[in-house]
Amino acid sequence: MLSSIKLVSKTRAVFGGSQIFKACASQRVVKQGHFDGDQSNVSCTRRMSGTGFNVPPSAEFVARVSGIATMCKLPFQKTADGLDAAFVGVPIDTGTSNRPGARFGPRHIRAESAMIRLYNGWTRAAPYESLRVADLGDVNVNLFDLKDTCKRIREAYREIVATGCIPLTLGGDHTIAYPILQAVAERHGPVGLIHVDAHADTSDMILGEKIGHGTPFRRCVDEGLLDCKRVVQIGLRGSGYSPDNYEWSRAQGFRVVEAVECWHKSLVPLMEEVRSQMGTGPVYLSFDIDSLDPAFAPGTGTPEIAGLTPIQALEIIRGCRGLNLVGCDLVEVSPPYDTTGNTALTGANLLFEMMCVLPKVKYY
């Protein structure tokens, strides 16, 4: 946790290591040797450094464009051992039914995440003072075989959750939720689900196939992975293949909140009801970026007009504080359809918000 700063002059510093912090109310400078204001070696560390938390370098001292593009510039770690939470990429789009490109989502989300600082400015969450977090890199997927990819994802997440680590997933298309939930439910039993999406993703088949980004939650119900009394789907909208797109969801006991029910209002009251519905049992949060209106998030494969706003997205995620979250994902970012990078930037910020509402996170 200690990084060396060599003061070359009063205005210039040379940094050693990757975790450099400005001395302030929550940080302290430990002098090593004589400090004369001109040239010396000092170590800069955080107040909680003795507990071994990973803390990203501050952009006050380390340029955002430098270094390896891990999520939030966190350290890379090969396994989840010793971690409370971890960012994991699953770069596939072979389950996509329309525009491809989500295989590039994790890479672009990581690049845009360099913008994110250490604290949540509004909620006062301090995740890096509460959780040991790292970036585990990407699952080694098979882009030519979706069933094999699902097997690889399931096996990778079994290892992650077996350590007690909470996975925060960078997608990838929404197919990935199915094998992830297989691994999560294997450890925790049937879980509650907060599913934020333009689409219900409960089709039985697409083009004769049982596995794809439109089928994951149908497969999850088939295998008993979900506690159907504790499932809510928020933001659903668009044209459909039947008069009632969501009849099957309602028949399983899901609460369906269509996008039209969210127009022109805060979703804070809705999330109060959702928290009551979820109770104290394990909950998984699955967030498809196409739940947002394409005016805010055009970089996705199956956009639908008249969707949620980024403000409502924050209300939903922040409304999950206090729940027993055992995993989260952010899926369907397709960078080729948004040359500005704003969709990936939004995705990165939503993942940060998810980390901020995990159990044990400290708030000031």
UniProtKB/TrEMBL annotation:
<comment type="similarity">
    <text>Belongs to the arginase family. Agmatinase subfamily.</text>
</comment>
<keyword id="KW-0479">Metal-binding</keyword>
<keyword id="KW-0378">Hydrolase</keyword>
<keyword id="KW-0464">Manganese</keyword>
<dbReference type="InterPro" id="IPR005925">
    <property type="entry name" value="Agmatinase-rel"/>
</dbReference>
<dbReference type="GO" id="GO:0047971">
    <property type="term" value="F:guanidinobutyrase activity"/>
</dbReference>
<dbReference type="Pfam" id="PF00491">
    <property type="entry name" value="Arginase"/>
</dbReference>
<protein>
    <submittedName>
        <fullName>Agmatinase (putative)</fullName>
    </submittedName>
</protein>
<dbReference type="GO" id="GO:0033389">
    <property type="term" value="P:putrescine biosynthetic process from arginine, via agmatine"/>
</dbReference>
<dbReference type="GO" id="GO:0008783">
    <property type="term" value="F:agmatinase activity"/>
</dbReference>
<dbReference type="InterPro" id="IPR006035">
    <property type="entry name" value="Ureohydrolase"/>
</dbReference>
<dbReference type="GO" id="GO:0046872">
    <property type="term" value="F:metal ion binding"/>
</dbReference>
<dbReference type="InterPro" id="IPR020855">
    <property type="entry name" value="Ureohydrolase_Mn_BS"/>
</dbReference>
